[in-house]
Write the structure tokens for this entry.
Amino acid sequence: MPIDGLFDWLGRFGDAVEAIFHLGAISSTTANDADAVIASNVNYSIALWRWCTAACKPLIYASSAATYGDGSTGFDDAGGIEALKRLRPLNLYGWSKHAFDLWTMREATAGRAPPMWVGLNFFNVFGPNEYHKGDMMSLTAKNYRRIAASETIRLFKSPRPDCADGEQCRDFVYVMDCAAVMLWLWRGGPGANIGGVSNLGTARRAAFLI
């Protein structure tokens, strides 16, 4: 459904909605149209939050590991708003996700929140049905066929002297596992972290080269 038509649809059929899973965004890490990114990733997300709050509907939304920037502050998701304030994203996309995370924490502290809400810092998600994403496909999807055929693949040169080319590491998480976690949270699984911003990854680093 086009974004422009969603809130009219919710006005007509919102009573039948059980929860909102908000995953849409301008997700390119090289995006430079600040007006478009703010409109899509911040303002639209705020509108969905406010609708869920007013309608008493659960909200699970996509934040991003891009909010951690260069990782110099660590990747701990146990802190509150003060911990979030220390993060320094490296690009406009990460900044937009960080801005919304901060806004949600302030709203929740003020008592203006959906009855259940979780923001998820997705790490490097890969899996089926991402081939439409072009340059934003995961490294796995971009290079699977080449690797399977024992062909050489190109990687970014490492920008750090303490990390050799090709030894950069990422936390790769399978898309089906992400979907399972989101459903588990919505259904209130035992130990589910209801209310806050949490990491969604494997907590295991994998190098680009094996």
